[in-house]
Amino acid sequence: MENFLFGLQRKSLNKVREVYRDIQQGQCFYCRKSLQDEVAVDHFIPWARYPNDLGHNFVLAHTSCNGRKKDYLPSLEHLERWKTQNIELHEDEISERLAAYFLCDAARSLSVADWAYKVNAGKLWVKGGSFSAVD
Ligand SMILES: [Zn+2]
Fold first, then answer.
1. Would you say 73 and 117 are in contact if contact means Cβ atoms under 8 Å apart?
2. Deepest in the core among 22, 52, 55, 102, taking most CB within 10 A?
3. From residue 48, how far is each of 51, 52, 67 by CA, in Å?
4. What is residue 35's DSSP assignment?
5. CA 17/CA 59 separation, integer angstroms
6. Residue-wise pLDDT tens digits, 86-107
7. What separation in Å is there between the alpha carbon of 3 and the centre of ligand 1?
8. Could you state, in order of their start, the residue ranges of all structural domains in the chain?
9. pTM of the predicted protein model
10. Ligand 1 mean position to 61 CA, how many Å?
């Protein structure tokens, strides 16, 4: 049963691509360059740190940017842009369009982000192979 539900969730990632392509106007969340066909649905707070699909925790990124980010938390600048994009500007749209597929609870996504950055002891990913230090 778990695997069955998990499989359904994976399929609904196509819906995430559609919604976030609109929100991000076809640009990669991290490098802001145009997304072509190599698009990855990225868990902003990495799946390895919080293995749940929350509607507001997604962004779209190039497969290459997603691959460089790995399981690192994004820089504080990315964090601010994620809050602006997914919570301040598009909280309702994300909830409306994705609630049938994923848990959409912006307050919970914010709590998870706050928690993840609080307990993080590692460096923060900026882009490519570059990182910023944690204060
Ligand atoms: Zn990119």
1. yes
2. 55
3. 6, 9, 14
4. P
5. 9
6. 999 999 999 999 999 999 999 9
7. 31
8. 2-132
9. 0.90
10. 5
